[in-house]
Amino acid sequence: MPRLTLSGLTKAYGKLTVVDGVNLTLEEGEFVSLLGPSGCGKTTTLRMIAGFVDPTGGTISVDGNVLSAPGAVVPPERRGMSMIFQSYAIWPNMTVEENVAFGLKLRKLPREEIRRRTAEMLEVVKLNHLAHRYPAELSGGQQQRVALARAIVVKPAVLLLDEPLSNLDANLREEMRFEIRRLHDEFRITTVYVTHDQAEAMATSDRIAVMNGGRIEQVDAPHLLYTRPRTRFVAGFVGRTNLLEARAEGGMLRIDGLALAPTTQADGPALVSLRPQAMTILDAPPTGDGPALEAMIVERTYLGEAWDYVVTPTGSALRLRASAPPLAAYEVGKAVWVEIDPRQVAVVQ
Amino acid sequence: MFLIDRRQMLALAAWSAAASKAWAQAPLTPAEQALHEAAKREGEITWYSGQYSAEASEAAGRAFNARYPGVRCNVVRSTSQVAFQRLSQDQRAGVAQCDVFSSTNGGHYIQLKRQNRLMQFRPASADGVLPILRQADPDNYFQSSFLGIYLMAHNTRMVPEAEAPKSWTDILDPKWKDKLAVGHPGFSGAIGLWALQMRTMYGPDYLRRFERNKPQIGRSSIDPVTMMEAGERAVGVAVPSASTLFSMSRGNPLKLIYPTEGVIAALSPSAIIRNAPHPNAAKLFMEFTCGPALSTAVRELFNESLRPDVPPPEGSRPLDQVTMLAPSLEDAEKGVPEVREQWREIFGV
Amino acid sequence: MNALRPSRLRLLEPVAVLWIALIVALLVLVAVPLGKMVVISFETQETGEFTIANYLTAYGRQRYLDALRNSLLLGLYSAAISTVLAVPMAWAVSRTDMPGKTFTWVMVLAAFIMPPYLGAIGWILLAGPNAGWINQVWRWASGAEAPLVNVYTFTGLAFVIALHSFPLVFIFVKSALDLISSEMEDAANILGGGTWVTMRKVTLPLVWPSILGGFILIFLETIALFGTPAIIGIPARINVVTTQLWQFFEDPVRVEVAAAYAIPLLLITVALIAVQKLMLNRKGFVSQTGKGGERRQVKLGPWRWVLFAWCLMVGMLSVVKPLGVLLQASFSRAWGRGLSWDNLTFRNYHLLLFDHDMAPQAVWNTMWFSAASASLAIVLALLVAYIVVRRLMRFADALGFLAMAPFVIPGIVMAIGFYAAYAGPPLSLYGSALLIILAFTARFLPIAYANSQAAIRAVHPEMEEAARILGSGRLRAIRSITAPLLKTSLLGGWLIVFIVASRELSAAIFLVGPRTRTMSVLLYDLSEQGNFEVVSAFGGILLVITLVIVGIGMKLVGRDFMLRRE
């Protein structure tokens, strides 16, 4: 039985539907991100899981027990979950230790056990030396660790994270990404992670659910999401891509007669996502038998870790973005060959 | 008339202290004894006091407390009209709070008696008061408890004695413009009586002519005494002799004027309210009021004594040498509200 | 699937019960008294039949109409004088390098906590046309016959009221000015606007809503003020609405007529608030653009001394002089005799503290009525604000509206409503402490509410959600998380309500009974007989008590707690 099941979950405020029939299941110990632009309904979904928002349709169940259904909602305190908030919500009137021990005290555990588990948890997040400090005396990263410790120490059935890193600066954000994943690997708590940052989602998650306009567009492992986006939105939101009008003809995707990749699609027009990384720019025609075309460099931008080129195939008005390693420098106006990796060509809806 | 010097003042104080002690300790009469026992069970008595000044009312309350241990007197001192207003509010709200009601406006008692809101009671001590005060009401619904003398006074530094007004009509002379001070019949019962008496003697035009001299209007009849003390106004109209003498005893340059027509004498009663919450304590208070203890207590503050066995206050002209003017209680009941309304139309407040 | 039965659990959430209790409490405190007042204004006394006779009586005389006109004029004068006094002070303290800001601040605070009727008594001693100190000095110095100032005039009355109302404008305008970024002024400077032009064309227009708000508030306070018009207005022969209302309570008590006569106050208030809304809807103002940009002091050069002189003058007039003359009187045998050793006495204080029957009881009444109303108001306001801010219930805004409504109801109207609704049968609360406590609670609920709302807004809802998701119920989360975080600001709110309640007169005067007199009412009663020495001493006691409370507040909550706008 899955740990957490969302089925047909819907939330509407009057005529405005912010979450629209979301279906999602998480196996025990799985880490799933809800990724999407702001306003896509991901935070509302998370708050419905927590019990702070009542659904107008669909259900949420944990281990087969329905916790939320329209008009019948178990309050948050009875769900056995934990949550980490965007603002951390570390209580400034309690020390680090008291913050972490709060949930255990609510569970009426023996005082000795509370002390022991709190100390262990603080050890894990490397805060044991700050146990008696007040939150105001801590840095942002340290506060974030307190929030993590406070949420994990109660061994929740489901851990919810709501944009937990958005208030940290870039370096710290990267460090905490790995910290979150490390803690997940250590405790294997079923986790739902809400973020608008694809790098965060990719670094932490087992699977990512991309949301748009209140719906889930695609749920997949991070690398599949990148290489095999299923919708136009996913292709555009996760990484950059070239969206091309192609045609399927006899099991082959073609653009202007050029065979790109084999397909199972029936004959007819097809929208194709071609990642910049799926193209290699060459001085001479490629030696292999993969698809390739003649083109001209029309724009270039140096990004440090890569060149970002815009090329136009000969005899076409298409503008394709192609990525090249730092040493592959070509002047604007130069004629080149572009080789395409057919495995990275994805048909999207 | 004379100013009391310091030595006389000390002697007076010593005498009155000794006398009031003597009276406080004098054995209770049988009537008092019987009531005292019953009153102790009620514990307190609330006195709406509009007759004596705040100091004298408080002194009377203290004398009562000292003489009858176990019964506490709540002194609620205000101007008479305000005291009556409170009583009316009580009545309107259906709340019984007042035990004994004392007002300088005798008309109040006629009204209360007619409305059957008074309790019949004649204290035994009433037989010992001055003959003019002995029988205020043939049906014994109220008893005289106050003899107030209202006359004129002047600040001797601002107006030499020779130039001071001699009669009630003198103050209508334009030369007194901006020099007079008076209380307000909407607040002070005595001022109501005075205004009524003036109207009776000199016709309705009196107040209008008085107004042309722009007297300063206070609220209480005592207000003008303060105005004279301060030098704000030179002549006080219808001021109580007691407060003026008290002020003189403190060294203020004031002098009483006994108008040629006579002084306004407020022979004012007190009465027990029919629904008094502490009826026995109220009866005891009435015994006290007509007995020597009250006269002794208030005499120290220059109020007239009610009894021949307690001497009149120092500096006051003996009562048998002055003409006393007073509207009858019946006239007061009808006339005071009329004259009050007339006053408001003339003075605007 | 064995679904839990969550719906029943939901229904039992204590918040729902609380919500109903709050609705009832607010109805009792706000809606019923007002409603009852409107109803009885159309009733015949005793029989309760419908009539418009009360209105005919209430407006049937020139004198009554004059009183209405006087009140309106008085409100305008006082509000205008207050604005003129306060705006330069607020600008100087907030935006410039004027010296003596602490002094100015102390003066404003002192003017704020000084009960207006005490100030009125002080000004009688100062500006009585013949004996007032100012006029004595003036005559001595100039040899003139005519007095320099006369408190017993319309302008005198308006001025005395303004001297104790201007702190409201000051607080409003200063808080708004504090929010303006210097960049706004820089932008005008760079285009060629000098300091004065910038102030007139940019800075002040930006805080126009606050000036207007302060103006309207003072107007409303003034037309509902009882003490000062009674103390100064009667000798000055100026009848106003409040003193006229008092006359309707003379025997026979005509509450119905009083109610009819009080209705215009209510209508004026509603109209003014509407006008304010209308005027503010049109433009963007500083209130919408909170932070951003630095704030620098404008350098005034020698002009800073001019501004300081202005602040000094206002401080002298509103605090130092009246307070000085009151203190002098309170230690005098006879205040008219001035300062001399043989005139010095502690007798007045001794009399009040040890020999007076009513005074100690009035002190005690004031303390506990104020404490009880402050506690009640804060608890109620906190719960309402919590529900409104956290949007826990549908129609939560209705609760908030009810809690804020007394803000725009003149205190004296409130008192008449309370008298009409609860003084008589069936509750017969007249003369009871409960009636006064309830009236004070209702009257000062908006202060408590604004305070609580700001405090709750400052606590992120996630603070509580973090506790709830860990397994704590809502009430437990409030108790162990929210309440401790709100403690300080709520204490501040409590103290403010306590202070304003302890000096309240306009509502108390209609509701006190013999055993429930407050210090303010006793002061008023004492002032009736002009015994200014004792009155001043009693005022001194009231001020000492207030100062102690303010001191405690500053210690616990911070220096600014009285003068923040919340």
UniProtKB/TrEMBL annotation, chain A:
* Keywords of the record: ATP-binding, Nucleotide-binding, Transport
Q: Where does the UniProt annotation place the signal sequence?
A: none
List where the protein spans the membrane. none
Q: Which SMART domains match?
A: AAA (SM00382)
Domain ABC transporter: from-to ranges: 4-238
Q: Which InterPro entries match?
A: AAA+_ATPase, ABC_SmlMolc_Importer, ABC_transporter-like_ATP-bd, ABC_transporter-like_CS, Mo/tungstate-bd_C_term_dom, P-loop_NTPase, Transp-assoc_OB_typ2
Give a Gene Ontology cellular component term annotated to this protein: ATP-binding cassette (ABC) transporter complex
Identify the PANTHER family for this entry. SPERMIDINE/PUTRESCINE IMPORT ATP-BINDING PROTEIN POTA, SPERMIDINE_PUTRESCINE IMPORT ATP-BINDING PROTEIN POTA
Protein name from the UniProt record: ABC transporter ATP-binding protein
The protein's organism comes out as Neoroseomonas marina
Q: What taxonomic classification does the UniProt entry list for its organism?
A: Bacteria, Pseudomonadati, Pseudomonadota, Alphaproteobacteria, Acetobacterales
TrEMBL record, chain B:
Superkingdom of source = Bacteria
Write out the entry's keywords from A to Z. Answer: Signal
Gene3D superfamilies in the record: Periplasmic binding protein-like II
Q: Where in the sequence is the signal peptide annotated?
A: 1-24
Kindly provide the name given to this protein in its UniProt entry. Answer: Extracellular solute-binding protein
Q: What species is this protein from?
A: Neoroseomonas marina
